[in-house]
Design a protein that fits this description.
Elements: H1 5-20, H2 27-44, H3 50-61, E1 66-69, H4 73-79, E2 89-90, E3 103-107, H5 113-125, E4 129-134, E5 146-149, H6 158-181, H7 195-198, H8 205-209, H9 229-263, E6 269-273, E7 289-291, H10 299-303, E8 308-312, H11 320-329, E9 332-337, E10 353-356, H12 379-399
Parallel strand pairs: 1-2, 1-3, 3-4, 4-5, 6-7, 6-8, 8-9, 9-10
Length: 400
């Protein structure tokens, strides 16, 4: 994906110039700088993915399983059954129907490092191929035999370490697919369940290939690309997404954060999340919001006439049933979604805000040469990015 390099250079220059003048950096600005720098670091270091990608590719070609394991529930759920993710990726006990040589991928942060290292040792004693993903320990080299650096600081908070691990998860997935394509085999990827509404010719695709690791002759085929191509393309798409969110949505994000802070003492905002991952990554609940896990029928009562809904959704616009529930409550809302073409809603009429997550409908970012669908989803990263900005905006507003 093409990055608007002139805007990028202007943004970086402006930030550097402000720091040189000694201008104060807000929590929101600090997070923006950290997140965008992290994406740049991943792009500069895609070479670190080649060795683990080759190992995983060889294991899959030999008929081995690929599982996400460990205790990071959010990271595991992010990687399973995803549009643009591998159909072969699973999560189950290594003792059940497992074989020596199966691949187990563990994610950690500083807090969980010792526990995940212990799990890795147990799995390796059973001849599993274990790949650890996380920050470089403060004491030096990691204890994993095979390891992918998240490129986040050892003392980073858990959600920032998670961001680094998500970038590793999807860039390595792309590199594994490229490695098998160079050997003449094409891994099967999930398509978005929403995609057939835009392209009816893809109806039934997931069911047709469900349970397959590789496509057979006559099925979709991925042309080979050189190492690093898939990873860099994905990171370019994430960099462009971050840029567009900052350039076009930041003022709205800050205003929503301020509203959350204003309401926190008397009538907290209601957060409704549609996500594989984000339910596990909340750190502001009880302070800036209350999470709602009910249905649309009961949402008006939960909101009340002075309610404020923050809806963190996906790539299919604003759900009509949720919109109607907010209107019945005579409440207001912030809709954090990817807009749906043809869905013309009057946000200003009701005092609502729409925040665009800035990725393509269908939640897959990269077109690999020859393959029939895009691969590698950006939505989890977009949701985490916007959520972290919201929380920092709320916190800064409360302090101010």
């Amino acid at each position: 994906m093409h990055i608007r390099r002139r805007e990028w250079i202007k943004t970086v220059f402006a930030a550097t110039w402000l720091r040189a003048l000694g201008a104060a950096t807000t929590p929101v600005e600090a997070y923006l700088q950290r997140a965008r720098k992290l994406v740049e670091q991943h792009r500069r270091n895609v070479g670190r993915l080649q060795a683990p990608a080759e190992l995983v590719a060889e294991a899959l070609l030999a008929g081995r399983a690929l599982d996400l394991g460990g205790g990071d529930v959010g990271w595991i759920s992010e990687g399973l059954g995803r549009s643009g993710g591998l159909m072969v990726t699973g999560h189950h006990s290594p003792t059940a129907s497992a074989h020596a040589g199966d691949v187990e991928w563990l994610s950690y942060c500083a807090r969980t490092y010792d526990l995940e290292l212990k799990k890795a040792a147990e799995l390796e004693s059973k001849k599993f191929l274990v790949l650890g993903s996380g920050p470089l320990p403060a004491g030096g080299a990691p204890g994993f035999q095979h390891w992918t650096d998240s490129l986040t600081p050892w003392n980073a908070d858990a959600n920032f370490a998670l961001l680094g691990n998500l970038l590793s998860l999807w860039t390595l997935t792309g590199e594994v697919a490229a490695a098998t394509a160079r050997r003449g085999r094409t891994l099967v990827f999930w398509q978005s369940m929403f995609y057939p509404t835009l392209h009816p010719e893809f109806q039934g695709r997931n069911e047709r290939y469900r349970g397959h690791t590789f496509h057979e002759k006559g099925e979709p085929h991925m042309d080979p690309v050189q190492p690093g191509v898939a990873a860099r393309a994905y990171l370019d798409s994430i960099a462009a997404m971050f840029h567009d969110i900052q350039a076009q949505e930041l003022d709205k994000i800050v205003s929503v954060g301020k509203e959350m802070a204003r309401r926190s003492a008397s009538h907290p905002a209601t957060l409704l999340i549609v996500s594989h991952m984000m339910h596990n990554e909340l750190w502001g609940e009880g302070k800036w919001f209350k999470e709602y896990k009910g249905d649309n029928e009961h949402l008006p009562a939960a909101l009340g006439p002075d309610g404020y809904l923050v809806y963190l959704g996906y790539y299919d616009g604003v759900p009509p049933e949720t919109w109607d529930a907010v209107r019945r409550a005579k409440a207001r809302a912030a809709w954090i979604v990817v807009p749906l073409a043809g869905q013309n809603l009057n946000f200003e009429q009701y005092g609502d805000v729409m925040i665009n997550q800035h990725y393509e409908p269908g939640d897959a970012a990269i077109a690999m040469p020859g393959y029939d669908i895009r691969i590698l989803p950006p939505s989890g990263i977009a949701q985490l990015f916007v959520y972290e900005l919201l929380m920092r905006a709320a916190g800064a507003s409360a302090i101010g």
